[in-house]
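Running this now, will post back.
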Amino acid sequence: MNRDNITIKHLLSMHKDLPEYPTQEDLSYEVSKWYWQDGGFNIIENNTSVIEKSTPVFSLQILTDSIKLPKANLEILIEKMLVAGIITVTKSTQHNKYYRFETNDYK
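Update: finished.
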């Protein structure tokens, strides 16, 4: 995870207290942190057949269960990010869709 690009609000962990949380930037930061620092890489690589290697991959379930993001606006945020081309679906199953970032400042 590239620490040079981490914003002050994330370094101080104050982003979760802001009224607009989670934003696209927060989602990118939280997924990257979970993937690179909190063992998410091992979970994805060992428990799914996602083809993408060394790119943070996540699902809605990962966001709510592992990363503990509030579910309230996540589906809307993910849809906006898909439409904008910020994330793409890398794998879809009967129960889950897995997404990856097309660009990620924290890589």
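The chain has a mean pLDDT of 84. More later if anyone needs it.
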